[in-house]
Design a protein that fits this description.
Number of strands: 9
Structural class: alpha+beta
CATH topology: C8orf32 fold
Order of helices and strands: HEHHHEHEHEEEEEE
Low-confidence stretches: 1-14
Number of domains: 1
Mean pLDDT: 87
Distance between the termini: 30 Å
Shape: globular
Radius of gyration: 16 Å
Largest sheet: 7 strands, antiparallel
Number of helices: 6
CATH class: Alpha Beta
Helix content: 25-40%
CATH architecture: Roll
């Protein structure tokens, strides 16, 4: 059973990798992505403890303004803005683990020194996009299980065409269901509590690059 599961996971991830490469190339164009269903919320969830510490140090990055729109209305200009910021941050920040960077297993922060791991990339992307006019409430930090079976953080942008993922592992901005990841939880849109996305297990840290 385990071998069959491993083989199936390998096929799914290989397919997602090919799709990611193709999508990254296609996204040099200004056309809008195809629509898809949003990720389903299945209940409440506890936030990652390193997120709680980050919010204590940077409360403005964690505040939820319910007056903001809960989704982004995509236009070709906004889509290109999202794709451009994802690519720019991925190519300007150097990936390094929190253990190498800070001497701790998991620390969430803005990569102001040019170094960071997965969540740091995504926090910077959200900050830049919010400064560019996108509603912060529609951009939610999200925890997944990646192709290595490890905890990983991505940025989910909720749009009127579905939920899309900004990821430091690819320059392609993909629909959430095309990444090959198992979705665990993300920030809620009504307050500081997080929500579950139905994944069976929750990592205690998101410590890979």
């Amino acid at each position: 059973m385990k071998n069959k599961l491993g083989a199936a996971l390998g096929v799914a991830i290989a397919g997602a990798t090919l799709l990611s490469a193709a999508a990254a190339s296609a996204q040099t164009m200004a056309s809008l992505p195809r629509g898809s269903l949003p990720a389903a919320v299945t209940g409440e969830a506890r936030p990652v403890m390193a997120w709680v510490d980050f919010c204590r140090r940077h409360p403005q990055e964690c505040a939820v303004d319910t007056a903001e729109a809960p989704v982004v209305a995509l236009s070709p200009r906004i889509w290109q803005q999202i794709v451009s910021v994802n690519r720019r941050v991925n190519t300007t920040i150097t990936a390094i683990t929190d253990q190498e960077h800070w001497g701790v297993p998991d620390r969430w922060d803005l990569p102001t020194d040019g170094y960071g791991d997965c969540e740091d990339f995504q926090l910077l992307k959200r900050k830049l996009l919010a400064e560019g006019g996108l509603p912060r409430r529609a951009m939610r930090m999200t925890v997944v299980i990646d192709e290595k079976g490890e905890g990983h953080a991505v940025l989910m942008i909720r749009t009127d065409r579905g939920d899309f993922i900004l990821d430091n592992k690819t320059n392609a901005v993909l629909p959430w269901h095309d990444t090959g990841y198992v979705y665990i939880k993300r920030e809620g849109q009504s307050g500081p509590a997080w929500v579950s996305l139905g994944g069976a297990s929750s990592p205690t840290v998101t410590a890979n690059r």
